[in-house]
Amino acid sequence: MSDDGSKATDGRATDAPAGSGAVTASIEALFSEDRTFPPPEDFVARANVNDRSLHDEAAADVLAFWARQADALDWVRRWDSVLEWNLPFAQWFVGGSLNVSYNCVDRHVLAGRGDKVAFYWEGEPGDARTITYGELLDEVQRFANVLKGLGVTRGDRVCIYMPMVPEVVVAMLACTRIGAAHSVVFGGFSAGALRDRINDADAKVLVTADAGWRRGKPSPLKPNADVALADCPSVSGVVVVDRCGTDPDMVEGRDWWWHDLVPAADPACEPEAMGSEDLLYLLYTSGTTAKPKGIMHTTGGYLTQVAYTHKFVFDLHPDDDVYWCAADVGWVTGHSYIVYGPLANGATSVLYEGTPDHPARDRWWSIVQRYGVTILYCAPTAIRTFMKWGTQEPEKHDLSSLRLLGSVGEPINPEAWMWYALHIGGARCPIVDTWWQTETGGIMISPLPGLTTTKPGSATHPLPGISAEVVDDDGNVVEVGGGYLTISQPWPSMLRGIYGDPDRYAETYWSRFPGRYFAGDGAKLDEDGYLWLLGRVDDVMNVSGHRVSTTEVESALVDHPTVAEAAVVGANDETTGQAIIAYVTLKGGQEPSDERGEDLRRHVATRIGPIARPKTLVFTDDLPKTRSGKIMRRLLRDVAEGRVLGDTTTLADPAVVEEIARRAAAAPAEG
Ligand code: WTA
């Protein structure tokens, strides 16, 4: 640890203002002697958790523990049994019924907090809106009635493809109010990706916007939706928010403006009492095959765990805190920790539409100062980008309101952790490094900030109620050392399956280690029992905290008429965690060129979305294969990361990989 620590100190000294001795001193002040970071005393004094009682309760009787967390919600009917576990199928709070929008909005208004701010929303151009719980309730009910008017009923699916505007939250909550499941598709996905997701979910209605603001320009959504909808027979109605005034085509009888329908809608809509196990939403995520998986989350258990984790991991004091989760609502982090967790807890949040560098690289820090943000939750890739931009950006603003920082989406390297702690947290804020997944629904492994002594780069320990274990290749539990991260007991917000494919669910998550959920991540346990997440061990890449499947990119490439074969790997990247490197063999008669490479990169971005665009594309006459014809990705990763080549003896033709290494060194990469 101390090596990483001192490296971070040295690295920072270069961009620190005069008197970097002070910087070094503050870093030292962060740590106890063994370079661990105990929670600051004043933080502990008023923390929601500052002793082991939650751990003790969970250890004594885990089901009673979860029942107590569920009791923090308002139930229409209390459950008959906490858990029915028929491995790998779990049902939580069976027999109970509740409504999610009621828990997220109505109950706060009924308790007299209608004037409390739910969201401080800021658009990228600088326009802003403050939305109280009372206003949210009004809009949610109206939009719920709009959905009903478009024929949506309990049990239907609604697709949401939107920028980060308040209407996206309204649309999600309106679905839950009438018992329809939503499927939010990240606004950065292409028409093709949107089409596949709409069709897999058989969605009846699409909610979208003309465009969203990105780096000062409208980034179109409705035109993509129109391309997708040409092949989506299930969609009969489309509601469009006019965000950028780009005047998109509107199909008569199918497409409706939000601003025409919502003000005219009936302002009262009774919440449906939903079964605890009714489908709440689908969220598609990349797996190891080309077809994205529709991860299913249900109602009672999901809301219980996201509210519980949001309250304790972020030490939420709803009357004082201004909380900002800077994720996009199109990913699970946005679902659980922009929408459902914070609203269930009656929090005040910030919602920001745009990019961190518009109009300048201090945009985030101006937002923190303007709204007095106390809790900030973001991804390591953002932190590393800010490191690159330099400390002068955060130093332009008063960040003293911050008291807690969070990290999610990928392993945080100790250097980034230290920079975050010092230059954003002012050596004052604990950091919660939270490990979880789309599939887990809520945070699973994380410090409790008033209790846990942290180590930079370690997500520390499973939360009370969660049983995470590291196992070796044979499934034996590892006490100290490396292996695979598994979850050995069901948890309330666990995925209930893959939409339409129960066999794939069992096969993907429960077959590698019998009786255990296997997350796909490597992990190690150190001598002090701290967990260190080591990244994915399967063919899933993590690019800027976004999951991208190697197979999905490969199939997009081979779908191009000039491509014969493609292999894709994720290589370590300083800023984005991993970068996508593609090796491509063209069909006979096709000539490699920079233009062809650019064309193929663009093709992938069009097929999947800009996040899947390869950073480097290497043309090769052949791919390294075993004699049985399997592509050896390990070698391609070695090449991509410039390592001495691993064992090539099993290759059918060892000369191939040397030629690839030569070409890879010469290939142009995007910055
Ligand atoms: C990775 C995002 C290390 C991990 C919530 C996981 C992390 C994948 C962390 C899930 C963390 C997430 N430390 N790795 N704190 N958090 N990951 O589904 O590889 O988009 O399997 O969910 O992100 O990504 P997903």
Can you describe this structure?
It is globular, with a radius of gyration of 25 Å. Helices cover 34% and strands 23% of the residues. It starts with a helix and ends in a 5-residue tail after the last helix. By secondary structure, the protein is α/β, with parallel strands linked by helices. Mean pLDDT is 92; it is low at 1-20. The structure holds 5'-O-[(S)-ethoxy(hydroxy)phosphoryl]adenosine. 5'-O-[(S)-ethoxy(hydroxy)phosphoryl]adenosine (WTA) binds at residues 285, 331-333, 408-411, 433-438, 459, 519-521, 533, 535-536, 542, 547. 5'-O-[(S)-ethoxy(hydroxy)phosphoryl]adenosine binds at residues 285, 331-333, 408-411, 433-438, 459, 519-521, 533, 535-536, 542, 547.
Cα separation of the termini: 30 Å
Strand content: 15-25%
CATH architecture title of the domain at 133-293: 3-Layer(aba) Sandwich
Main sheet: strand order:
12-11-8-6-7-14-15-23
Low-confidence stretches: 1-20
**How helix-rich are the residues, as a percent range?**
25-40%
CATH topology label of the domain at 133-293: Rossmann fold
Rg: 25 Å
CATH class of the domain at 133-293: Alpha Beta
